[in-house]
Design brief:
This protein is mainly α. It is about 55% helix and about 5% strand. A four-stranded parallel sheet has the order 2-3-1-4.
Length: about 290
């Protein structure tokens, strides 16, 4: 383990060859080796203090990847700020992913785990658009011959789905009180009709906790209170359930402190948490842990 870390982070290591401007830090190597010992050998807790800019994220990410493979279990990396989370997801972990594959032929997966309110709920959106009631009426009459249907039965039932969506979209817009709400709703619908792949706020690319979008998103985001689980007619297409499945396959799960402790509270109260099972967690920005746990 120590030799692998030196091979990657050492003075003449792979990182230095890939990024020549990177400064060699002996403390970074020692920290990485210590974290590796804790995760792989002793499995005890450790508290490490290091100043900003000392390369902490690389020094713990490297042994975390090795440990996840050795234990065949995910390692949680928890942060307090989105900036650090972004650095891990956009910079450090992709670099190590490329390096592990090119040097060792080893592939590993990493994901960002988010609370369910960050995901669009298809059932809530369709209910808002009143598409559920149309679908139910169609289901009840699915055994009727087409020629037996009349315009009086329900004209919406014979209209193509894309047109139904457009009509219902306009109806919802007209029911909104302000122009800002209508614009926010249009922004959401424009994203939805383009068939989002992930269905979360990052995929959406719009601040959902700001302005008129707040009330719109609150009506369509996933919530534990209204989730029907496998009984939901949209369970196979559910963005949140798809995300959870990807978390279970990941080697490194990047989370935030708030989600970790909220999940732990659910488990301690006898419920089923949303995070995959893991015995290992690395808290970066640990000075914020107490506040998140309260």
């Amino acid at each position: 383990l120590h030799e692998i870390i030196v091979h990657i982070l050492g003075e003449n290591g792979i990182i230095k060859n890939i990024l020549p401007e990177t400064e060699y830090r002996e403390a970074q190597v020692r920290m990485s080796q210590f974290v590796g010992d804790v995760l792989i050998k002793t499995k005890h807790c450790a508290i490490i203090e290091a100043p900003t800019g000392s390369g902490k994220s690389l020094s713990y990410s490297l042994p975390a990847i090795i440990a996840s493979k050795m234990h065949d279990a995910p390692i949680f990396v928890s942060t307090s700020t989105k900036n650090l989370q972004g650095q891990l997801i956009d910079k450090d972990l992709p670099l190590l992913q490329k390096l592990f594959w090119s040097e060792f032929g080893v592939d590993f997966q990493f994901v960002v785990c988010q609370g369910r309110s960050n995901y669009l709920c298809l059932r809530r959106l369709h209910r808002m658009l009143d598409l559920e009631s149309i679908s139910k009426r169609k289901s009840k009459k699915k055994n009727k011959k087409y020629e037996e249907l009349t315009i009086e039965d329900n004209p919406m039932e014979t209209i193509p789905e894309v047109v139904q969506l457009s009509i219902q979209r306009q109806k919802v817009k007209e029911s909104m009180a302000t122009e800002r709400e209508r614009k926010a709703f249009d922004t959401l619908m424009d994203w939805y009709i383009n068939d989002p792949k992930v269905g979360d706020v990052s995929d959406f690319g719009v601040e959902v906790n700001k302005g008129a979008m707040t009330s719109i998103w609150d009506k369509v985001c996933s919530t534990s209170d209204e989730c029907l689980g496998w009984k939901c007619p949209y369970s196979n297409s559910c963005y949140f359930q798809k995300a959870k499945k990807s978390w279970e396959k990941a080697d490194i799960c990047v989370i935030n402190h708030a989600l970790f402790f909220a999940n732990k509270a659910i488990e301690l109260n006898g419920g089923t948490g949303v995070l995959p099972a893991s015995k290992f967690i690395i808290f970066d920005e640990a000075d914020h842990v107490q506040g998140a746990a309260q």
